[in-house]
Amino acid sequence: MQQIQADLTQIPELINAIHPDSSHSIAPLVLRQRIDELSKGVKSPMTELEAWRHLSQLNPYFQDAHFVITYPNIKQRIKQHLKNGGKLFPLKVYLDDKQRLRVQQTYTQNRAVKANDEIISINGVSSIEVVNSILSRMHGDTERFRKSLASKRFSQMFWLLYGDSGSYAIEILHNNKVLNYSLQGTSTYATDVELVKLVDRKILKGNIGYLKVDRFIFVPEQEKAFFDFISETWSWFKHKHVKDVIIDVRENQGGTDHYWQLGIAPYIAQESFPFLSHFKIRLTERNLKLGPVQGEQNSVLEGPYNQRVPVDKHRGLKIDGNAYLMIGPRSYSSTLLFLTAIQDAKQGIIVGESNGARSCTTGRVESRTLTETGLLLTVPSLIFTRPSGSELCSRPIVPDLRIEYDDSQPEAQLNQLVDYILQHTD
Fold first, then answer.
1. Closest CA to 13 of 289, 371, 396, 325
2. 3-state SS, residue 130
3. What confidence tens digit (pLDDT) does each residue in 176-212 have?
């Protein structure tokens, strides 16, 4: 018990050593009160997993998707679980506006389980209880954003909280009729995804170019392939006389900025534009090594950021028309920096729905292992302010063109955008 309480004491110390200003997302008093509540809730010794289930209840209060207590080596542990013959919950799901758990797409192993069916229970546990248990441990800026992450990571979170039953008894509500199924768990768990599954290009009706990029971070052997793909894409668009282009980053949770600054911005922006207006950074040992800002270690520096994103390396392949950037429920981190920079400079049109994440994001995350439990605490060390300034920082991005997103039919939103472009093309 004393081990858990020791780690709870350590958490604010680590936060203060990394974060430049944790009140950006959580008030110090709220953090202290929540830690005290969790400390009082420790009644007996806990395993590592039990400790995560307890301490991860801080995650929603951090109100930042870069700020989280995680179960260590989770991906490797799930891979080992599957290698040992274990399974994961098999259905792709989403949470609707009323927080009901729904099937995202018709289940290929049992086509009686249809897209949009409501899941009432899993293994006899009410879906309401399951969803509340997951959301009470999910990180993210806002409730809406946490619901989106919970949908994407449902099978992982279910395994952490409820374990693996091999097969899963699910109770479904379909057309006001309650149906019961037993579904075999899946051994599929996507981690090291091939580049071909993360990017896509095509030419849609009306000769509209379409480029999808699902992340801005790649392993070294994928980076060259990514930029080759991007270069070929813009050459192809030029050859096909593409005028307007759609950039789909609805599933892109971010990464590093050079992917969009070198691979997308030069081909859609008409002139260089500001990246940020202001920054605030904790000069940790790592940040001093990364640079470029220098100063006394552990101090906090802030100031204006005047660097612009250059757009001259387009090789004559810049599009002549408009760029429509699709924001989605999980667009985050570097993707938000991309979207806000383009929007504030009026170099493109943001399309979709606000996803709940703050439009001024954080970055340069650092992780520390909690001494007693071995759990991982990840904290951002840098706060970005969008080019237009701090006034809109706490609010989500407001799209220039609002088109509703349906988790079960993502293509419907794209089709509506294509129709809009065709209607507004000279």
1. 371
2. helix
3. 999 999 999 999 887 667 888 899 999 999 999 999 9
For residues 374 and 315, give the distance between their C-alpha atoms in angstroms, rounded to a whole number: 50
pLDDT of 378 higher than 90? yes
Structure confidence by residue, pLDDT tens digits, 360-373: 999 999 999 999 99
Q: Between the CA of residue 64 and those of 24, 155, 308, 365, what are the distances in Å?
A: 9, 22, 26, 11
Whether residue 214 contacts residue 247, with contact meaning beta carbons closer than 8 Å, is answered with: no
Query: For the residues 71-75, what does the mean pLDDT come to?
Result: 95
Do residues 216 and 257 lie in contact, with contact meaning Cβ atoms separated by under 8 Å? yes
CATH class label, 87-186 = mainly beta
Q: In this predicted model, what pLDDT tens digit does every residue of 212-240 receive, in sequence order? A: 999 999 988 899 999 999 999 999 999 99
Q: Where are the domains of the chain?
A: 87-186, 195-272+310-357+396-423
Distances from the Cα of 240 to the Cαs of 177, 290, 299, 420, in angstroms?
51, 42, 53, 21
Total residue length of the chain? 426
Query: Which CATH fold would you assign to the domain 195-272+310-357+396-423?
Result: 2-enoyl-CoA Hydratase; Chain A, domain 1 (3.90.226)
Q: What is the DSSP string of 326-386?
A: EE-TT--THHHHHHHHHHHTTSSEEEE---SS-SS-EEEEEEEE-TTT--EEEEEEEEEE-
- Which residue, among 150, 262, 259, has the nearest Cα to 199 in the 3D structure? 259
- Are 331 and 325 in contact by the 8 Å Cβ rule? The answer is no
Q: Which two tokens stand for residue 208?
A: 């509209």
Judge if 87-186 and 195-272+310-357+396-423 fold alike in CATH terms: no
pTM of the model: 0.93
Distance (Å, whole) CA 74 – CA 123: 23
